[in-house]
Structures are given as structure tokens and as C-alpha cells.
Amino acid sequence: MKKLKNENAIFKEALITGIKYAEDRGVVKFEATDSASEKLLYVYRFLVYDKIIQPLPEDQVSEKALRHKLALWYSKQLPKDSHLLK
After folding, report:
1. How far from 66 is each of 26, 52, 72, 81, 82, CA to CA, in Å?
2. Would 47 be classed as within a structural domain?
3. Of all helices (H) and strands (E), which one includes residue 25?
4. Are 1 and 67 in contact (CB under 8 A)?
5. Is residue 14 classed exposed, middle or buried when 0-12, 13-18 and 19+ CB atoms within 10 A define those classes?
6. What is the overall mean pLDDT for the chain?
7. Which pLDDT score is estimated for 5?
8. Cα distance between residue 31 and residue 6, in whole Å
9. Using one digit for the tens of pLDDT, what is the confidence trace for 43-85?
10. Distance separating alpha carbons of residues 67 and 86, to the nearest angstrom
11. CATH of the domain at 11
12. How many domains does the chain have?
């Protein structure tokens, strides 16, 4: 698993986008008390359910792998000249 440049910043934007996507679809309403790990897992499972991203094998599902998977998904949506990719 090759780490992206600015992966942490890309992941943060990916999580925000994923949360907004799930809430806009009306399937979930996140609370302020929900942990980032819970949000990450829910967004990942929801994106897999909607067939937006490919699922990882269950034995490879970890917080680190999910963060990387969401960052990859979001990085592919960014324009080539995005500051997050530099």
C-alpha cells in the first residue's frame, strides 16, 4: 500500500465528502458524539453498498486500510492541479 502525498489531508476531505454524501442520501444523521472511527467505517460500508468503491477482503479491513481506501477514492475525484495532490 503506497502512501499518497498529503494522504492525511486528502483523507480528511474524503471523510467530510463521504459524510455529506450519506447524509444527503438521507440514510444517516451523524451526531457530534460519534467517533471518527465510527464515521469512517460507516462511510466505507455505505460507499461499498452503493458500489462507488470496491470492498476490501474482510481480513484486511482496518482503520489504516480504510483511511487509505477513502483517500484513494477521493484523490481520483480531484482535479490534476489540486493543491492536495502536490
Report:
1. 23, 14, 10, 25, 22
2. yes
3. helix 7-25
4. no
5. buried
6. 93
7. 83
8. 27
9. 999 999 999 999 999 999 999 999 999 999 999 999 988 888 8
10. 19
11. 1.20.120.1930
12. 1
Tell me how many degrees the CA angle 73-79-84 measures, rounded to the nearest 5. 70
**Is residue 13 a part of any domain in this protein?**
yes
Predicted model pTM: 0.90
Q: How far is CA 1 from the centre of its chain?
A: 16
Quick one: pLDDT at residue 74?
95
Instruction: Enumerate the H helices of 1-86 as residue ranges.
Output: 7-25, 36-49, 63-75
Q: Span 24-51, mean pLDDT? A: 94
Nearest to 1 by CA among 71, 58, 55: 71
Alpha carbon separation from 41 to 10, 15, 68 (Å, rounded): 17, 10, 12
Residue 20 to residues 33, 46, 61, Cα–Cα distance (Å): 17, 12, 23
Cell numbers at residue 57, please?
477482503
